[in-house]
């Protein structure tokens, strides 16, 4: 349900999708404990923000990105 919205949004902002089952080390590195989860990462690999659960939508991700 969330992925189609994020795919649309990826035309406007850079989004990378990570499958936590196949990329366990990445999920562990960013302490992803539940899905869905959106983690904003800067160009240095540092976390800049996070959204978890049902509050993830195009508007909330855009707001997080623009902070």
Can you walk me through this structure?
With 67 residues, this protein is of the alpha+beta class. It has one domain. It contains 3 helices and 2 strands, in the order ααββα.
Offer a concise description of the structure.
With 67 residues, the protein is α+β, with helices and mostly antiparallel strands. It is built from three helices and two strands, in the order ααββα.
Strand order of the largest sheet: 1-2
The DSSP helix count reads 3
Question: Which secondary-structure class do the elements indicate?
Answer: alpha+beta
Runs with pLDDT <50, length 5+?
Answer: none
Distance between the termini: 25 Å
Overall tally of structural domains: 1
Let me know the largest β-sheet: 2 strands, antiparallel
SSE arrangement:
Blueprint: H1 2-9, H2 24-29, E1 37-41, E2 47-52, H3 58-66
Antiparallel strand pairs: 1-2
Keywords, separated by commas or semicolons:
67 residues; alpha+beta; two-stranded antiparallel sheet; 3 helices; 34% helix; globular
């Amino acid at each position: 349900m969330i992925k189609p919205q994020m795919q649309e949004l990826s035309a406007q902002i850079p989004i990378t999708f990570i499958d936590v089952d196949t990329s366990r080390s990445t999920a562990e590195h960013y302490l992803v404990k539940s899905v869905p989860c959106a983690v904003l990462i800067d160009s240095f690999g540092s976390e800049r923000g996070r959204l978890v659960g049902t509050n993830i939508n195009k508007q909330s991700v855009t707001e997080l990105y623009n902070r």
